């Protein structure tokens, strides 16, 4: 089935794609795959098997993958171009979609907190190794990708977006601080200790 838009604009200027998806209960992996793709795309659940996204090009690839997965599972999917019947309906859809993005941002910021806590723990126990630094940098890159994806999906601008951006900057600064500590520890010259025999006083002889 083709993905597309059409119809008159709603009073708030937003058009929507509404998906009605039915996938056989067994095997369950097909239903799970479709559900995960809908969640990954950022689709808003309106009820059992009914999802909606703003009708903008950003969501086209995700909707296409959902339709492909549904067809592969021998299921059925209908995509409809829709608008609210009035401005109140349009505002309600926008509010529901933005609330879903707010939940996404809250989850993201919680993971930022976990990242900062992990770095603080490694500093506290002085675990300054390249292996640990590489692991933390991979975690930071995952946060960056997640932030980019959420920013793209947040079409209407959830109020938590600005705070989330600041939290990501704090994570980046914390990781940079940890990296400097790692490099300092790795390049630190160990304290040289003289052998016991080399510290004998004048006139002392070995073995006497």
How are the SSEs ordered, and which strands pair?
Blueprint (H helix, E strand, L loop, with lengths): L15 E7 L5 H14 L2 E4 L2 E5 L5 H13 L3 E7 L4 H38 L5 H24 L7 H26 L22
Antiparallel strand pairs: 1-3, 1-4, 2-3
Helix pairs in contact: 1-2, 3-4, 3-5, 4-5
Question: Mean pLDDT, rounded to whole units?
Answer: 88
Radius of gyration in whole Å, from Cα?
A: 28 Å
How would a textbook summarize the main sheet? 4 strands, antiparallel
Strand order, main sheet: write it out: 2-3-1-4
Summing up helix and strand content along with how strands pair, one would put the structural category as alpha+beta
Topology as a string of helices (H) and strands (E) = EHEEHEHHH
Specify the number of helices.
Answer: 5
Query: Quick one: overall form?
Result: elongated
Helix percent band: 55-70%
Amino- and carboxy-terminal Cα gap? 97 Å
Q: Which residues form runs of ≥5 with pLDDT under 50?
A: 1-10
Proportion of strand residues? 5-15%
Give the total of beta strands. Answer: 4
Provide structural commentary.
A 4-stranded antiparallel sheet has the order 2-3-1-4. The model is unreliable at 1-10 (pLDDT under 50). The chain is built from 5 helices and 4 strands. It starts with 15 loop residues before the first strand and ends in a 22-residue tail after the last helix. Helix 3 packs antiparallel against helix 4 and helix 4 (130-153) packs antiparallel against helix 5 (161-186). The protein has helices at residues 28-41, 60-72, 87-124, 130-153, 161-186, and strands at residues 16-22, 44-47, 50-54, 76-82. Helices cover 55% and strands 11% of the residues. It is elongated. A hairpin with a 2-residue loop joins strand 2 (44-47) and strand 3. With 208 residues, it is of the alpha+beta class. The longest helix is centred in the middle third of the chain and has 38 residues, at 87-124.
């Amino acid at each position: 089935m083709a993905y597309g838009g059409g119809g008159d604009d709603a009073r708030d200027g937003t058009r929507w794609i509404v998906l009605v998806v039915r996938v056989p209960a067994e095997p369950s992996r097909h239903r799970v795959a479709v559900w995960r793709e809908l969640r990954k795309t950022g689709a808003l659940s309106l009820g059992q098997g009914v999802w909606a996204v703003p009708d903008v090009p950003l969501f086209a690839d995700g909707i296409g993958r959902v339709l492909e997965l549904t067809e592969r599972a021998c299921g059925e999917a209908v995509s409809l171009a829709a608008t609210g019947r009035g401005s109140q309906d349009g505002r309600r859809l926008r509010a529901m979609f933005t609330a879903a993005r707010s939940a996404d941002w809250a989850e993201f910021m919680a993971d930022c907190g976990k990242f900062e806590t992990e770095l603080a723990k490694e500093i506290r126990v002085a675990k300054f190794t390249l292996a640990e630094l590489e692991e933390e940098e991979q975690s930071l890159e995952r946060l960056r990708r997640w932030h980019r994806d959420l920013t793209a999906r947040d079409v209407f601008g959830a109020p938590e977006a600005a705070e989330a951006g600041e939290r990501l900057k704090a994570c980046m600064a914390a990781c940079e601080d940890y990296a400097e500590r790692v490099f300092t520890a790795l390049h630190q010259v160990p304290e040289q200790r003289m052998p016991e025999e080399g510290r004998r006083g004048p006139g002392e002889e070995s073995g006497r």
